[in-house]
Design a protein that fits this description.
This protein is mostly helical. It has a single domain, classed as MetI-like fold (Orthogonal Bundle). It contains eight helices and no strands. Helix 2 crosses helix 4, helix 3 packs across helix 4 and helix 4 packs across helix 6.
Length: 201
C-alpha cells in the first residue's frame, strides 16, 4: 500500500504539477485570474504541513457532510500536496531557460504550445529531474504519515505486527529496512543523473 500510495502521488502529482507549473509561467492576460488562484494553491499547500492537511480533509469533509473513505482522503491530499511542490519545481525550471529560446522558437514560426513542449519542457525536465526524484523519495517516506488517520501502509502494518508480537524494536527495524530498500535505489539514481548532467554540460 505504501508503494501504491507513493505511485499515485507521484504520477497524479506530476501531471497536476506540470499543468500548474506551465500555466503559472504564461504571460496571457486571459489566464491571469487562474495564475493568481494557482499561486494561492501552491503557497498554501507548500506552507502547510502535510499532516495538518490530512487532518483537515479527514475531519473537515465529514463535518461538512461529505463522507469519503480513508483511501480517497489519503490519495487526494498526497496528490494535491505533491502537485504544489512539483509545480514550483517546474515553474523554476521553465523560468531558468534563457528567453532567447523563446525568441528563437517564434522566429521559426512556432506557436506557444510547440515552443513549450518541443523546446522548453525537455530542457526543464533535464534541469529538474534530480530535484523531482529527490522530492519523490521524500513523498514515499511521507506516506508513513497516512498511518495516523488509519490508512494501511508500512508503518500502520508495522504497528499491527508490533501489537501482535510485542516486539516494537525488531518491528520498526524491519519497517525502516523496507523504506530503505524502496528509497535507496532512487537516491542512487539521483547521483547518476547529476553525474551525467554535469558531463554533458
Amino acid at each position: 500500500m505504501t508503494l501504491r500510495l507513493g505511485l499515485i502521488a507521484v504520477v497524479c502529482g506530476t501531471v497536476l504539477g506540470l499543468l500548474v507549473g506551465i500555466v503559472s509561467t504564461t504571460k496571457s492576460r486571459t489566464l491571469k485570474p487562474f495564475r493568481i488562484v494557482l499561486k494561492i494553491y501552491v503557497e498554501l499547500l507548500r506552507g502547510c504541513p502535510l499532516l495538518i492537511q490530512l487532518f483537515m480533509v479527514y475531519f473537515g469533509f465529514p463535518y461538512m457532510g461529505i463522507n469519503i473513505d480513508i483511501s480517497l482522503t489519503t490519495f487526494l491530499v498526497f496528490t494535491l500536496y505533491s502537485g504544489a511542490y512539483i509545480a514550483e519545481i517546474v515553474r523554476s525550471g521553465i523560468e531558468s531557460i534563457p528567453s532567447g529560446q523563446w525568441e528563437a522558437g517564434y522566429c521559426l514560426d512556432l506557436n506557444y504550445g510547440q515552443i513549450m513542449f518541443r523546446i522548453i519542457l525537455p530542457q526543464t525536465v533535464k534541469l529538474a529531474l534530480a530535484s523531482l526524484i529527490g522530492f519523490y523519495i521524500g513523498m514515499i517516506k511521507d506516506t508513513s504519515l497516512a498511518s495516523i488517520i488509519g490508512y494501511s501502509e508500512l508503518v500502520r502494518n508495522g504497528q499491527s505486527i508490533m501489537n501482535q508480537t510485542g516486539r516494537p524494536f525488531e518491528t520498526y527495524i524491519m519497517v525502516g529496512i523496507c523504506y530503505f530498500v524502496i528509497c535507496y535505489p532512487l537516491s542512487k539514481l539521483v547521483s547518476v543523473i547529476e553525474r551525467k548532467a554535469a558531463r554533458y554540460d
